[in-house]
Amino acid sequence: MTVHPxxxxxxxxxxxxxxxxxxxxxxxxxxxxxxxxxxxxxxVRDVVSHVIGLECEMLGDPRPIHxxxxxxxxxRNELTRYMEVQVDVxxxxxxxxxxxELEYTLIRRSRQLRNETRQPDARxxxxxxxxxxxxxxxxxxxxxxxxxxxxDLRRALRSPGNLDSPGAMVARDVLIExxxxxxxxxxxxxxxxxxxxxxxxxxxxxRTVRVDADGRGTVSGSPSLGPAVTFVLDWxxxxxxxxxxxxxxxxEDRVKVEGDQALADAILRGFAVTP
Length: 275
Known about the structure:
- This protein is α+β, with helices and mostly antiparallel strands.
- The protein has 2 domains: 5-158, dinb family like domain (Four Helix Bundle (Hemerythrin (Met), subunit A)), CATH 1.20.120.450; 168-269, SCP2 sterol-binding domain (Nonspecific Lipid-transfer Protein, Chain A), CATH 3.30.1050.10.
- 46% of the residues lie in helices and 12% in strands.
- The protein has 8 helices and 7 strands.
- It has helices spanning 5-25, 44-58, 78-88, 95-114, 135-156, 166-186, 235-242, 261-269; strands spanning 123-124, 133-134, 194-200, 205-211, 217-220, 229-234, 255-259.
- The strands form 2 sheets. A 5-stranded mixed beta sheet has the order 5-4-3-6-7. The chain has a two-stranded antiparallel ribbon with strand order 1-2.
- Helix 2 (44-58) crosses helix 3, helix 2 (44-58) runs parallel beside helix 4 and helix 2 packs antiparallel against helix 5.
């Protein structure tokens, strides 16, 4: 085997999620590609286009030369503009064109990953054209992104599933890693504060974010005897909030809050950690 063992987990998670996307969209009729998703301004076709486009960039394909329309309300900054090019250039593609390109991209990318011989710490071009990251981090982020978009498609197509798949495990770790920033930088939790997040459902975990005397946050699996705030919610709701797919008010009946309500509200307002 040429692939480093620490990379295989992310490659497997990516493969599982992107193959699930292919299975979801292959039987769709033309009209179903236009169904809206929770991603602002994006249809099912657009989400699939985004996945295809980023995988093509990972393959080293040149980016399309394409001018965006001026009336795309959801394009708000350079990052969203960057992402939109790969999406808008495919808006005129038919269902067969979309499924064919997805399948061809999946084959090419799978072959590339099977033949990966670099070490996990090798520096590579980051997703979305960002700064260089390690190969391991790049693969982790691609597995995370593809699984999140698989779930976007499942909700739009009313085909739930894979909430406990390999991609879900990667997403859990990525989102937990972001919790200290949500509590400290986002919500401004004061020093010596503890916040507990208790998640149940297909993926279960309990984590405590502790803010030290200097205002820095750390996350651990050890319980807190006197947290300032405790959140209890199911895994799917956690993903929806952390990935910015819903506003807190839309799922308030699915989130149990105990403790400092003002701090809890501040944390929920800044809970989304994805672009």
